Amino acid sequence: MKHKNIIIVGFMGTGKTAVGKAMAERLGWRFVDTDHYIESKQGTTISDMFRDLGEPAFRNMEGEAIAAVLEGSRQVVATGGGAVLAEHNRVCMQQEGYVVALKAAPEVIINRVKQDEKRPLVQGDVKERVYSLLEARKHAYDFADLIIDSSTASVEEIVEQVIDAIQ
């Protein structure tokens, strides 16, 4: 395997964690979710960080976490949906591994995230928030080495596509 890490990016609800865990298990690598990494380092939840510190402070912590995590190797790393918004994060990801972007249809994302109280960016009108964030980020994932639509593909099918692409 010529890649040091596999980094999974994508909008919330596209399956980054499920795919990342399955891929790590398949490869015998470690799985790291950067949101969980940040929560454990800070001793609080992402929602609370957004509320108490604001999104800019959270995004700074996220950048530091991505850089620290990607110093390792043989990892499948799932990032938060907005991690790609900062250029330094995108550059770091490209330098430290193979980047896979998961995309999904808006209706699929809405169905997957509408009941999740822990997602600070979709509080309120979930449908409106998802559509406006998708529009704002429509090219944010274009830098990835591989883009996969997770709307109808199973986790196993996505893992197979990634493994085929990296071999």
From TrEMBL:
Gene3D superfamilies per the record? P-loop containing nucleotide triphosphate hydrolases (3.40.50.300)
Keywords associated with the record: Amino-acid biosynthesis, Aromatic amino acid biosynthesis, ATP-binding, Cytoplasm, Kinase, Magnesium, Metal-binding, Nucleotide-binding, Transferase
* Binding annotation for ATP: G13, T14, G15, K16, T17, A18, R119
PROSITE patterns per the UniProt record, alphabetical: SHIKIMATE_KINASE
Q: Where is the major localization of this protein?
A: cytoplasm
* InterPro entries referenced in this protein's UniProt entry, alphabetically: P-loop_NTPase (IPR027417), Shikimate/glucono_kinase (IPR031322), Shikimate_kinase/TSH1 (IPR000623), Shikimate_kinase_CS (IPR023000)
Positions bound to substrate: D35, R59, G81, R137
Catalyses:
shikimate + ATP = 3-phosphoshikimate + ADP + H(+)
Q: Quote the pathway field.
A: Metabolic intermediate biosynthesis; chorismate biosynthesis; chorismate from D-erythrose 4-phosphate and phosphoenolpyruvate: step 5/7
Q: Which cofactor does it need?
A: Mg(2+)
What are the subcellular locations of this protein? Answer: Cytoplasm
Q: How is the cofactor bound?
A: Binds 1 Mg(2+) ion per subunit.
**Recorded E.C. number(s)?**
2.7.1.71
**Where do the annotations place Mg(2+) binding?**
T17
Q: Which GO terms describe its molecular function?
A: kinase activity
Q: Could you describe the subunit structure of this protein?
A: Monomer.
The entry sums up its family as follows: Belongs to the shikimate kinase family.
Job description of the protein: Catalyzes the specific phosphorylation of the 3-hydroxyl group of shikimic acid using ATP as a cosubstrate.
Q: What is this protein called?
A: Shikimate kinase
Q: List the source organism.
A: Paenibacillus agricola
